[in-house]
Each structure stands twice: as C-alpha cells, then as structure tokens.
Specification:
By secondary structure, this protein is mainly alpha-helical. It has a domain at about 20-65. About 40% of the residues lie in helices and about 0% in strands.
C-alpha cells in the first residue's frame, strides 16, 4: 500500500501581520504614508477619513479576509 503525503505550499516571503495589512490598506486607500499611521488612530477624528472612504477600506479588508466578522 502506498503512503499518502499531503503537499503543503511553502512560502519564502515573511507573512504580514493582520495589523500591517490593515495599515497597508488604509495607506493605499487614503494616500497617508503607512509609517505615520497606527492602529489606535480614529479614522474620522484624527485622519479626516470620510464615511465613503471608510467603506472602501472595509471592502478591501473584507476582500482580503473574506471570513472575518
């Protein structure tokens, strides 16, 4: 009988943390440099990001993490 071995893809690139992904998406959608953003910032009050841009950011996050709440 043959033994089955499950093939798992390997990646040599380091994976980004979810926080880094969020900051990258906010940076991409707003034009703010990622290094000036932090996860603790309020999008509307501190960055002036309007509700339409917030929806764009949330849509990009949902596309990246389809199963997330």
């Amino acid at each position: 009988a043959a033994t089955m071995v499950e093939a798992r893809p390997t990646s040599s690139a380091p994976s980004q943390s979810s926080g880094d992904v969020v900051l990258a998406i906010v940076s991409e959608k707003t034009g703010y440099p990622a290094d000036m953003l932090s996860l603790e910032m309020e999008m509307e009050a501190e960055l002036g990001i309007d509700s339409i841009k917030q929806v764009e950011i949330l849509a990009a996050l949902q596309a990246k993490y389809p199963g997330a709440p």
